[in-house]
Design a protein that fits this description.
Number of strands: 2
Helix content: over 70%
Distance between the termini: 42 Å
Number of domains: 2
Structural class: mainly alpha
Largest sheet: 2 strands, antiparallel
Shape: globular
Order of helices and strands: HHHHHEEH
Strand content: 5-15%
């Protein structure tokens, strides 16, 4: 089952991925922070930008080639290397990732993770209703990694559906972030002060 952490010894594989990130933070935090301060004085540098471009290409290539085979077990190593590189914030890609919209997406990332499947499923439900009422071919069955799935088709309907799903997911995530996640974090902060 490759890196799918819901099968066999999935917890161990999950721990492997999490541990690499935690170890990177533990052992490299000070050196990354120092390098980041030095880089911040000079602005984004071309050598760091080139390294970031190469890393993005490596990630795209890795995901496209190793997403459904045993090479996927190397994913935590590839992403730990990417994390190490981008933590320095030395190139133009890092500068783009510090833009306000991207920082907002970062703040919403846990909520996005939690609601995206729910939002996608509800949009498929709504599209199914619209399809039945108007006779449009909006959704259909297809194979995804050898498994049957239902979703939006290709072409312009699929492209529009993706844009609508992204916007709806970000909106729903902002609501859950603002009214669930932030109050819960504040409550846990207050609780931790009492302990």
């Amino acid at each position: 089952h490759h890196m799918d952490v819901s099968f066999d010894f999935g917890f161990i594989r999950c721990l492997y991925g999490f541990s690499l990130g935690a170890l990177l933070a533990w052992f490299q935090h000070d050196s990354i922070a120092g390098a980041r301060q030095a880089l911040a004085r000079g602005g984004p540098r071309m050598d760091w930008t080139l390294a970031e471009i190469v890393m993005v290409a490596v990630i795209v290539l890795f995901v496209s080639l190793a997403g459904d085979n045993d090479f996927g077990i190397a994913a935590p190593l590839v992403f730990a290397l990417a994390l190490f590189l981008f933590a320095h914030e030395g190139g133009w890609i890092s500068a783009l990732l510090r833009a306000p919209f991207m920082l907002t997406l970062g703040a919403l990332s846990y909520s996005i993770y939690m609601v995206h499947i729910f939002v996608q499923a509800r949009l498929i439900n709504v599209a199914g209703l619209v399809e039945r009422k108007l006779g449009l071919g909006l959704i259909g069955d297809f194979m995804l990694r050898g498994q049957p799935a239902t979703g939006f088709g290709a072409g312009w309907t699929g492209a529009v559906a993706i844009v609508v799903m992204l916007a709806a997911t970000i909106a729903a995530s902002w609501i859950t972030w603002r009214f669930v996640e932030m109050p819960a974090m504040a409550w846990f902060r207050r609780l931790s002060k009492r302990i």
